[in-house]
Design brief:
Number of strands: 19
Distance between the termini: 48 Å
Shape: elongated
Mean pLDDT: 97
CATH architecture of the largest domain: Alpha-Beta Complex
Order of helices and strands: HEHEEHEHEHEHHHEEEEEEHHEEEEEEE
Number of domains: 2
Number of helices: 10
Length: 355
């Protein structure tokens, strides 16, 4: 099934005559081709794609399921959309409420003469269960990420700054085949590792530091995600103890992770290990989040999600312990959930590495 058919199938279920795709991710998923600035309109029988002169040729060549129309100074998005909804008899039109500004919504609300119905969660849900071809792209992205990690370990030296390590890591990702970054890599060291999403800076690496690297390649838009915490020169006994607790927690969460299990139960399997060790107050985020064309996609394996995780979704597995102003540890793999368990597509070693 082409992805566009998933959107068409959804329309009668929601009682809609069409759906307006203004966000890049859902538009890309629906068209199976990425154009940076555009709007797509999908109805049960016809679909139109609106973009400007910078992208019109690419759209005409790569969007066989759409009638492509060009936006210019005399034909705004709103004007072309108004013409389309009138021709297609649209009265109720779904839209992505998380992808429109207030001013954009007001413009379309006034110009189109239809009832705009928010349906973001329904549209995003179409991307949760991955097709085999999507999984292959994610496996490839993860292989590149694993290779980049292997190479960065040979480059880390005392005296390098966090920013320098980050730059080397990005180079390794692209050199090994990434066509983009899944997100801006996190590289933090020493006391900065206590910040789960710390920002790389000019701090220089020192012997006895933990170094946390959270990074991922993108392949054809599909993301990978991995975190490894390594020690430089040596690790104290306390550092080793905390690392082993996080690793044990990750293993427990992975063992519990499969389709048909609530997200909070998977999170709880890992969290209980950390709590029993006395570090529960220092694990503030969830065990995992789903990913795909976006690095963070629902559903999540966190304490709030009591919904069953579906087969074919892809989730991270990333518990952590963060001791303020001292150090932190996070270990992250990526799992494909199956009815009988999961497939861990991350190949990098999880045991503590001292470089």
């Amino acid at each position: 099934m082409k992805n566009i058919e998933k959107y068409r199938k959804l329309l009668p279920e929601l009682g809609l005559d069409g759906v307006l795709l203004t966000g890049r991710v859902n538009r890309r998923y629906c068209a199976q081709y990425d154009i940076m600035e555009a709007i797509a309109l999908v109805t049960p029988t016809e679909s139109r794609y609106f973009t400007d002169s910078r992208y019109i040729e690419a759209a005409e060549k790569n969007l066989p399921d759409f009638t492509v129309e060009m936006v210019d100074k005399d034909h705004s998005f709103a004007m072309l959309l108004r013409k389309a909804v009138e021709e297609l008899g649209i009265r109720e039109l779904g839209f992505e409420e998380e992808c429109l500004t207030v001013s954009e919504f007001s413009e379309f609300d006034q110009a189109l003469g239809v009832k705009l119905v928010p349906c973001q969660k329904h549209l995003d849900a179409l991307r949760v269960v991955k097709e085999d071809w999507e999984l292959e792209r994610m496996r490839k992205a993860q292989r590149i990420t694993d290779q980049a990690f292997s190479e960065i370990l040979t480059k880390i030296r005392p005296g390098m700054t966090e920013m320098e390590v980050r730059a080397e890591l990005i180079y390794c990702l692209y050199k090994n085949g990434a066509d983009g970054l899944a997100f801006d890599p996190i590289v933090v060291s020493g006391p900065n590792t206590s910040m789960p999403h710390g920002v790389p800076g000019e701090r220089r690496l020192q012997d006895g530091d933990f170094i946390t690297m959270d990074f991922g390649a993108a392949v054809d838009g599909y993301c990978s995600d991995m975190t490894r915490t390594v020690a430089l020169g040596y690790a104290t006994e306390e550092m080793k103890k905390v690392y082993e607790i996080v690793l044990e927690a990750q293993k427990a969460g992975i063992a519990a992770a499969k389709a048909g299990v609530p997200g909070n139960a998977i999170d709880g399997a890992a969290r209980s290990v950390i709590e029993k060790a006395g570090y529960g107050a220092f694990f503030g985020h969830g065990f995992g989040h789903c990913l795909g064309l976006m690095i963070h996609e629902p559903p999540n394996c966190n304490p709030k999600n009591d919904q069953l995780m579906p087969a074919g979704c892809v989730t991270s597995a990333e518990p952590g312990i963060y001791l303020p102003d001292r150090f932190g540890v996070r270990i992250e793999d990526v799992l494909i959930l199956r009815e009988d368990g999961n497939e861990d597509i991350t190949a990098s070693p999880r045991e503590l590495i001292i470089v």
